[in-house]
Specification:
It is a multi-pass membrane protein. The protein is mainly α. It has five helices and no strands.
């Protein structure tokens, strides 16, 4: 499981850098400032959670079940939160109006928050 988490974290990190550069260079001339700021938010949260996955994979005291739960929450959260932000902010570029998926952004955010909660709860339950 640790290998899978690290691979996913590396992919998230790599894509965050690629998308951040794409936003800073290619999209800067196309998007309005508010859209660019939102796009950067998606990139930032994706990178935060790449680091979070690296951290979680390094914690030997976490059970396999806990690792799987956190991994799935982060995977779903990043895809829904950052992914929907990327689609919503680039509608001018794609000419596709993704408004219909706007409701998944907060769901993705909730999944990310819950992943952190699972980690917190796990350590509260552990005896020191």
């Amino acid at each position: 499981m640790e290998r899978k988490i690290i691979i996913t974290a590396a992919i998230f990190g790599m894509l965050a850098i690629i998308l951040g550069a794409f936003g800073a260079h290619a999209l800067k001339a196309i998007l309005i400032p508010e859209q660019l700021t939102s796009f950067e938010t998606g990139v930032r949260y994706q990178m935060y959670h790449a680091f979070f996955l690296f951290f979680v994979a390094s914690r030997k005291e976490l059970s396999l079940k806990t690792l799987k739960v956190i991994y799935n929450l982060v995977l779903g959260g990043v895809l829904l939160f950052s992914g929907s932000i990327f689609l919503l902010t680039t509608k001018n570029v794609t000419t596709i109006d993704f408004k219909i998926i706007g409701f998944v952004t907060p769901i993705g955010g909730f999944l990310l928050i819950f992943a952190w909660f699972v980690l917190l709860a796990t350590f509260f339950k552990k005896k020191s």
